[in-house]
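Bug report (template v2)

What were you trying to do?
Predict the complex of my protein with zinc ion.

What happened?
Run completed; filing so the output is reviewed.

Input:
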Amino acid sequence: MTLDPKAAREARARRLAYAKEHLRCPYCKRKLERWDLPPHPFSTWSAEYVYICTSEECSYYKEGVKRIAEQGTPGGAYRFVYDPSRDWCGPMAARVPPRSRD
Ligand SMILES: [Zn+2]
């Protein structure tokens, strides 16, 4: 099933509103953890900190692991991240911890 662009935008706006209001992951409802970003001149992140879903049971995370593995890069993942400084939410590249790899 593919969402049309308008529906996709609305779904994204709902996820952002949810993350903002509850500081919880809209996919797994787990509390987001504040993550302080190290200052880095080449970082694409302008924020000092973001909120990130650290759950390995998160459907978003699991879907990312599956998709990246299908693309031929096992060990990669995406986590849901909410950036209050930009009023933005989306994927952040992550690594699968070695202990949870098959
Ligand atoms: Zn989650």
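What did the reviewer find?
The CA atoms of residues 82 and 100 lie 24 Å apart. The longest helix spans residues 5-22.
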